[in-house]
Amino acid sequence: MPDRHSPVSDQSGQHGQSTPSPTAPAVPGPANPVRRLRPAQLLFEPQADEPEPERFFDLESIDDPAELLRRSTELTLAFRAAAERATDFQAIAAAQLADTRRFDALSPAEIAARVDWTPDYAARMVEYGQSLLKQHRNGER
């Protein structure tokens, strides 16, 4: 019996695939690729009375100054720790890119150009990254 379902368009825009029969479950595989349907088109634009105010971790909604100080300090410390960790990863990446054992090793000046550092700062980051890698190899930290 021919399938009377209309063709479906997947995300790639390909046509001609029919929807699976309700009695035969479609199992993803080479014969039955997973099809993703496009979201339904909006027929109207929802009204926004006024733009939503920006929120920064709901700090603006805290009325108690002691609680505001506690929460903002907590966020400051968390962001500082995240920035320090990200800097460590930058240094490790710089050291790995500058590793002379790599056939495509970069100079500190080339690394600096990639991330908008000065060549001097890049050289210090490479050294710092090398010390972090050495600590990691020795099981420290």
From TrEMBL:
Region annotation (Disordered) ranges: 1-37
Chain intervals with Pro residues compositional bias: 22-31
Domain of life: Bacteria
Compositionally biased residues, Polar residues: 8-21
Protein name: Uncharacterized protein
Organism: Kitasatospora atroaurantiaca
Lineage: Bacteria, Bacillati, Actinomycetota, Actinomycetes, Kitasatosporales
